[in-house]
Design goal:
Keywords: Cytoplasm, Leucine-rich repeat, Repeat
CATH class of one domain: Alpha Beta
Radius of gyration: 37 Å
Strand order of the largest sheet: 1-2-3-4-5-6-7-8
CATH superfamily of one domain: Ribonuclease Inhibitor
CATH architecture of one domain: Alpha-Beta Horseshoe
CATH topology of one domain: Leucine-rich repeat, LRR (right-handed beta-alpha superhelix)
Organism: Crypturellus soui
GO cellular component, one term: cytoplasm
Distance between the termini: 97 Å
Structural class: alpha/beta
Number of helices: 4
Shape: rod-shaped
Strand content: 5-15%
Protein name: Leucine-rich repeat-containing protein 18
Order of helices and strands: HEEEEEEEHEHH
Number of strands: 8
Largest sheet: 8 strands, mixed
Pfam family, one: LRR_14
Amino acid sequence: KGKGKGQKGKRITLKTAKNSIRITFDGRRRLDLSKMGITTFPKCILKLDDVDELDLSRNMLKKIPDSIQRFQKLRWLDLHSNQLEELPEGIGMLQNLAYLNLSNNKLTTKNLPVELNLLKNLRTLNLGLNRLDNIPTTLGALKELKEVSLFDNFLTAIPTSVAKLPKLKKLNVKRNPFPDPTQEEEPVDSIKRTETLYLVQEKDLCCSCLKMCQDERDKLNKLKNTIASSSKKPNFPSLLTPNSTAKENQEQWR
């Protein structure tokens, strides 16, 4: 008494597990053990390995046993928001799995089993909010994938084999430390700008400099006059003002 003990979590009995089976709207049997405070995978649920869906999300699981492969009918597996640091090799044996959510865990690239590439029927894979710094190119073997989520990791690149999956419709890679796009060179300014301007009075200039300044000023004034004359409104002396004919016919045009 008085000694600190690790968190045990809630103990799941077979009876509790059976009472947690729900029927989905499309008639599938889902074993829902989410938000139960579970810290250790309950071995008793292996006796319910004929379920179609298994939800162990939002618990405190650190490990999934290799015996998960016994759920051969499993099409939907949700393990998000746990404390998983690794996955068992046996997960690759779930050949009917179409949906796998592993987001918000502590998975690293090193602890992703190669066997994930055996999930040939997988359509949705969520690996967001983990600690991945790389994505195995072997995931490109999952040709049925339609949605892949890799947000909030430490990725700096996405393998071409994954980015160009034939049926991929959605790829979420937000909030990863990807390198900045190739920085464009600063555009060359075609206008020559004077960085330093010195003001002097005419009397302080030598004859040649004074003449050069006067010539440039004359050119500028000539250019201004040309622009001003071209902007004047054209004059049509023969045009009636106001146009009485147009004025009389306005009601008809309307």
